[in-house]
Design a protein that fits this description.
The complex is a heterodimer of chains A (about 260) and B (about 625).
Chain A: E1 9-12, E2 15-18, H1 25-31, E3 55-58, E4 61-64, E5 75-77, H2 81-97, H3 112-120, E6 136-137, E7 143-146, H4 155-163, E8 169-172, E9 179-182, E10 209-211, H5 224-227, H6 230-233, H7 247-254
Helix pairs in contact in A: 2-3
Chain B: H1 7-10, H2 15-32, H3 39-50, H4 55-65, H5 69-78, E1 90-95, H6 98-102, H7 105-116, E2 129-134, E3 146-148, E4 151-153, H8 158-170, E5 188-190, H9 203-211, H10 213-223, H11 235-244, E6 254-260, H12 269-276, H13 278-292, E7 294-301, H14 309-321, E8 326-329, E9 339-347, H15 357-364, E10 388-392, H16 393-405, H17 407-411, E11 421-428, E12 434-439, E13 442-443, H18 444-450, E14 456-461, E15 467-469, E16 477-478, E17 488-493, H19 498-512, H20 518-535, H21 541-557, H22 561-565, H23 568-576, H24 579-582, H25 596-599, H26 601-606
Parallel strand pairs in B: 1-2, 5-12, 6-7, 6-10, 7-9, 11-17
Antiparallel strand pairs in B: 1-3, 3-4, 8-9, 11-12, 13-16, 14-15, 14-17
Helix pairs in contact in B: 2-3, 3-4, 7-8, 9-10, 9-16, 10-11, 10-13, 13-16, 19-20, 20-21, 21-23
Classes of the chains: A alpha+beta (about 260), B alpha/beta (about 625).
Bound molecules: flavin mononucleotide and iron/sulfur cluster.
Chain lengths: ~260, ~625
């Protein structure tokens, strides 16, 4: 490709975003430092498209930014009122589905679900809470698996399979009865070859997979999303002019 | 203990038991091989014999196929026809489409449960029998219907239910049940362009051999054939994409899949095509294989159509014997002959989503039926990432006749944008339910007159996922440009309460959501709960606004076609039949979402009470 050849671009809420062939709308936006809210997506992981929080309207069609390939001159709407309302409804569904008690949760301040909800302007719950009865699996010496907070994003499934070379996690069942299971005859995490060093141990965007020794190390108020909003630190390429602490510094705070 | 009843079949344990499990497993391993993609078929084989998948079989499959235990458990938990605990030697599932309900299945269910002393979904303590509901079994023209150990029972009435209960109590093997109980009629009421000609002449294949793939592809293109499974994608284009797609390195072959999942409530035409026209369907698949260069073929048959399995295997065997399948098909007969192709039948296990082509491919690979993201499309990365054509049963049948008679013949019927005919499955309130083949462009009113429908209140076109029509719309025509349809046509007369239809569809979609994406997984259930709240007379007008909003979230934000269409019936009826909701509202704008009566469920369970006195009235 010659240097003169202009790079392809599309517009996202009026901003020109450059992209390489094969990139999704999400890839290109994050690389350009523009945040699109997302939960089940993570750079470096196979695109999934299940949470639907990254819904955008591209040339009039609503689709998930994390799975839709970018196309030249396409016009994408993201932070517009009706798309924001759609996202809030999806988030409210997730909050109603599980048992998310933020004030009592160890992940508060580090939780992407909570941070994305703030970003999207979700102010209240809306749908009847389902209050499912879900177990806490404390069988593993280093990690607690609390199914109450699982949002079925399958990041741990992908991390274990694609990054750790194991297959510790799977999603079982269907519909509203879908659930995360682990690959052991006992069904307990402690009976798998899961280790606290696995990528899967650190990938959970909520508080479902909790390393034991990290609990409350960083005080509330000084955690990842307490210090900077998710739109700055949620997988976006850092903006050199940012007023916020660098991501490295944040890792130290939260580690 | 009654004769013919083998307690070992229902209760686990014992050396004899593990020997039998091993025998069944060796049989299915010998027949299907040890590829990880065969796991679902092995599980179905175990379920069929033991009424569940026994633990030892799971351990053996983990070792033999190289899949994880979690993957197997996840699949068993996903498919409605697979179970970890025994269901009972007689596993009866009563079809619960709205058309079955209109024919009185609820009373028959009550009668059967009472006669056998069971509760729906709970195996009887002696392991003899389970009675449960299941999604539409595709017998809407001869319901109420049910399945017993996977085989279809039709035309149920109080007398038959009495007989069935007696046969179950006596432990009579199914082979000795009156064969009339299992009779399935084709009910072809109006044959047209395709159905008027039953004869299998293999003339389409002969044209392929003589003239080659490109010539046949040109005819299919000329015909303007569009997919009959719902989405209406141009068939020739799909075949061309697959033909031109580069093969996977190391796997030169491409794949042809016939979608016989036919799960849309109210559809049963593929059942009839596979019963009476199977040769033509397989001929169409073989032609497609010759055109795109595929050597592997699958027919994905919904579990509910297990009764067709022996017949289809026999037709395939006959075709192999005649050299119409296997190696060197049509060798020496011309430039288009001399290719290899064979077809295997894979069974589904009770999951509507597996009709969606990418979920179907996941299921063929032995996994849960979860819709893939797209792109990539199956034509470039389908079964085991090989280029794959997925077409509906009717599409393959039409392609076979187009190859024989040419594209212009097909175009002689239909409209500009919808060439040819459409085969409809007509059921509900009409004198002559069954199969009607009409030219595209036929008005709804004409079909209603044909089938003897009177005093019609509404027609549901294209199934639960389709569109609800009022009498003002009966002039509209069946065609991709007006009313696209996979063929389901359910008629409701003025005696019907349409909220019953809405309740049935809402429950169906909540049950059939694959659970992958948030809007459909959670929203589908929210819709069902709100519809039930309306039906209970407990909803206020705010609930109707919520219902409308959630339906929009499903339509706009879901991952796949199931979620996109799952709330159509709600949006349609809110707009066109608002009275079915309004007349049940409480006279308040707002009602609490907290349900006091539901909160007492645990107390009721603890005290083993479910009488009227243990419930709060809906307006309490
Ligand atoms: C939820 C859902 C269920 C479907 N069920 C079926 C089905 O039972 N049979 C079918 O042929 N197509 C079904 N489809 C459409 C298929 O995805 C696919 O478009 C079709 O098999 C392609 O074949 P055609 O081009 O010949 O129509 C379904 C789609 C969705 C979204
Ligand atoms: S819309 Fe989502 S949850 Fe529903 S069937 Fe499709 S992928 Fe599954």
């Amino acid at each position: 490709m010659s240097n003169e050849q202009a790079q392809s671009t599309f517009t996202l809420d009026g901003r020109r975003i450059p992209f390489e062939p094969g990139q999704t709308i999400m890839d290109a936006a994050l690389a350009a430092g523009v945040y699109i809210p997302h939960l089940c997506h993570k750079p470096g992981y196979a695109p999934h498209g299940s949470c639907r929080v990254c819904v955008v309207r591209a040339d009039g069609r609503e689709l998930s930014a994390c799975t839709a390939p970018a196309a030249a001159d396409m016009s994408v709407e993201s932070e517009v009122p009706d798309i924001r309302a759609l996202r809030v409804a999806v988030l409210q569904m997730l909050f109603a589905e599980g048992n998310h008690v933020c004030p009592a949760c160890e992940a508060s301040g580090n939780c992407t679900l909570q941070a994305v909800a703030y970003h999207c302007g979700m102010l209240t719950p809306r749908f009847p809470q389902r209050f499912p009865r879900r177990a806490v699996d404390a069988s593993h010496p280093d990690v607690i698996l609390d199914h109450n907070r699982c949002i079925l994003c399958e990041l741990c499934v992908r991390a274990s399979r694609d990054h750790d070379g194991k297959r510790v996690f799977a999603v079982s069942g269907r519909g509203i009865a879908s659930k995360l299971i682990v690959d052991a005859p006992s069904g307990q995490l402690g009976d798998t070859d899961f280790s606290a060093d696995d990528a899967a141990a650190r990938v959970c965007p909520v508080g479902a997979i909790l390393p034991r020794d990290a609990a409350f190390r960083a005080p509330i108020g000084r955690r990842r999303f307490d210090v900077a909003p998710v739109s700055r630190v949620g997988d976006v390429t850092p903006d050199p002019d940012a007023q916020w602490p660098a991501v490295d510094a944040l890792e130290e705070v939260t580690a | 203990m009654s004769p013919g009843y083998d307690p070992a079949m229902a209760h686990g344990g014992g050396a004899a038991e593990s020997e039998r499990i091993e025998r069944v497993l060796r049989g299915s391993l010998a027949a299907l091989g040890q590829g990880p993609d065969t796991v679902l078929q092995h599980l179905i084989a175990q379920q069929q014999v033991f009424s569940h998948v026994p633990e030892p079989a799971i351990d053996r499959l983990v070792a033999a196929l190289g899949v994880t235990r979690a993957q197997i458990l996840a699949a068993i938990d996903f498919y409605a026809f697979l179970h970890l605990t025994p269901r009972g030697r007689f596993d009866i599932r009563v079809s619960d489409n709205i058309t079955d309900r209109m024919l009185g299945n609820a009373a028959l269910m009550t009668q059967l449960c009472a006669a056998l002393g069971v509760r729906p979904g709970e195996p009887r303590a002696d392991g003899r029998v389970t009675v449960d509901f299941t999604s539409c079994t595709g017998m809407c023209d001869q319901g109420p219907a049910a399945l017993v150990n996977g085989l279809a029972l039709t035309r149920l009435d109080a007398g038959r239910i009495r007989d069935i209960a007696a046969l179950v109590e006596a432990g009579t093997p199914l082979a000795h049940w009156p064969q009339g109980f299992f009779a399935v009629s084709n009910n072809v009421q109006r044959p047209g362009l395709l159905l008027a000609d039953l004869e299998a002449r293999e003339a389409g294949l002969a044209r392929l051999f003589a003239q080659g793939g490109p010539a046949v592809l040109a005819e299919v293109e000329r015909a303007g054939l569009r997919g009959r499974g719902g989405a209406g994608f141009t068939t020739a284009l799909k075949w061309r994409f697959c033909r031109e797609a580069p093969s996977e390195p190391g796997h030169p072959d491409k794949v042809i899949v016939c979608n016989a999942d036919e799960g849309e409530p109210g559809t049963f035409k593929d059942r009839v095509l596979l019963t009476a026209y199977a040769d033509l369907v397989f001929e169409g698949m073989t032609i497609a294989a010759g055109v795109v260069g595929a050597s592997t073929g699958f027919l994905y048959l919904r579990g509910e159509y297990r009764c067709l399995l022996d017949h289809l295997e026999a037709v395939l065997a006959r075709r192999r014997a005649r050299g119409l399948l296997g190696t060197g098909i049509g060798a020496g007969a011309g430039p288009g002959g001399g290719f290899d192709f064979d077809i295997r039948v894979h069974l589904g296990a009770g999951a509507y989503i597996c009709g969606e082509e990418s979920a179907l491919i996941e299921s063929l690979e032995g996994k849960r039926g979860i819709t893939r993201k797209r792109p990539p499309f199956p034509v470039t990365e389908g079964y085991l990432d090989r280029p794959t054509v997925v077409n509906n049963v009717e599409t393959f049948l039409a392609a076979a006749r187009i190859a024989e008679h040419g594209g212009y013949w097909f175009r002689s019927e239909g409209t500009d944008r919808s060439a040819g005919s459409k085969i409809l499955s007509v059921s509900g309130d009409c004198a002559r339910p069954g199969i009607y083949e009409v030219p595209f462009g036929t008005p709804v009113a004409e079909v209603l007159a044909d089938c003897g429908a009177r005093d019609t209140q509404c027609v549901q076109v294209s199934g639960a996922a389709g569109v609800t029509l009022t009498p003002d719309e009966f002039h509209r025509v069946l065609a991709f440009e007006d009313l696209p349809t996979a063929g389901s046509f359910m008629v409701f007369d003025r005696s019907r309460d349409l909220l019953e239809m809405v309740r049935n569809f809402a429950a169906f979609f909540a049950h059939e959501s694959c659970g992958f994406c948030t809007p459909c997984r959670v929203g589908g259930r929210l819709v069902q709960d709100l519809v039930e709240k309306v039906a209970a007379g407990a909803a206020g007008s705010h609930d109707l606004d919520e219902l409308h909003d959630i339906a929009q979230v499903l339509r706009r934000a879901s991952h796949c076609g199931l979620g996109h269409t799952a709330a159509n019936h709600v949006l349609n009826t809110l707009e066109k039949f608002p009275h079915i909701y309004r007349e049940r509202l409480r006279r308040t704008d707002y009602t609490p979402s907290f349900d006091l009566d539901a909160a007492l469920a645990e107390a009721r369970a603890l005290t083993h009470r479910d009488d009227a006195g243990s419930h709060l009235p809906a307006d309490a």
